[in-house]
Amino acid sequence: MPELPEVEALRGFLAERAVGRVVARVDVAAVSALKTYDPPVSALGGLAVTGAARHGKFLDLDVDGLHLVVHLARAGWLRWSDGLPVHPPRPGRGPLALRVHLDDGSGFDLTEAGTQKRLAVYVVRDPADVPGVAALGPDPLGPEFDGARLRDILAGRRTRIKGVLRDQELVAGIGNAYSDEILHAARMSPFAVAGNLSEEEVRRLHAAIRATLAAAVENARGLAAADVRREKRGGLRVHGRTGEPCPVCGDTIREVSFADSALQYCPSCQTGGRPLADRRMSRLLK
């Protein structure tokens, strides 16, 4: 799933390539991706792209005061082309959801792999009209996200810290991959109870959040859209690396699998050398 660093990279890419161009037309290949109908997506035609923004994992193109807001979900992506096909695409079951043509012949496709279609497109007058945007917690790279704000978010919560980091209403933009990376950098178990963290642990976690995300954003800065995902995979130290040696201590990276996801961690760095139970019960093996 594209997370904060990848969406920020796409925002920067579109700011460079699309801002200043006029939307020639928008082709809808998957009606199910459209979540709003007033104003209609056709209202974007003839308007200029004036800005590109990010709200958590949401990508936002300002088109003369209307906003094309996109959530790429788990398997969505943006594919740029300097020369899009002239003829409208055929609606069907393929990966294409939406195509945006710009006045110089360039533009981009919004695509989604797999059979579960969750990519969401909104055309709104204000990004806050998108329920997911309106409900977002603070941006972890924003100035308001200091140690005190994180402490307030964690206070009294009896949930696991891994889940807290992924909860978009608490902290915006972090998903499964970067929560693994952050917890590894913070030397913290993914099953630690959020409200039980000490002041030192909160400080360490805050530093890891900021440093991990800032480094990922910087590594992806200036990349073409097609190269952003490759950069993400290459930069991950524990997520998706089950069975490989930890780059910090050399211990074997372990995995805990759930119904629709998995997490990775290093026992020596994060759990005192003890492997976590690879079952849905979030407790340590005795």
TrEMBL record:
InterPro entries reported in the protein's UniProt record: FPG_cat, FPG_N, H2TH_FPG, Ribosomal_uS13-like_H2TH, Znf_DNA_glyclase/AP_lyase, Znf_FPG/IleRS
Alphabetic keyword roster: DNA damage, DNA repair, DNA-binding, Endonuclease, Glycosidase, Hydrolase, Lyase, Metal-binding, Multifunctional enzyme, Nuclease, Zinc, Zinc-finger
Pfam families per the UniProt record, alphabetical: Fapy_DNA_glyco (PF01149), H2TH (PF06831), zf-FPG_IleRS (PF06827)
PROSITE patterns in UniProt: FPG_CAT, ZF_FPG_2
Origin: domain of life: Bacteria
Residue stretches making up the FPG-type domain: 237-271
Swiss-Prot/TrEMBL GO biological process terms: base-excision repair
Cofactor(s), names only, from the UniProt record: Zn(2+)
A molecular-function term among this protein's GO annotations: zinc ion binding
Occurrences of domain Formamidopyrimidine-DNA glycosylase catalytic (ranges): 2-93
Record Gene3D superfamilies: 1.10.8.50, MutM-like, N-terminal (3.20.190.10)
Reactions the enzyme catalyzes: Hydrolysis of DNA containing ring-opened 7-methylguanine residues, releasing 2,6-diamino-4-hydroxy-5-(N-methyl)formamidopyrimidine
Family to which the UniProt record says this protein belongs: Belongs to the FPG family.
The protein's name in its UniProt record: Endonuclease VIII
Taxonomy of the source species: Bacteria, Bacillati, Actinomycetota, Actinomycetes, Streptosporangiales
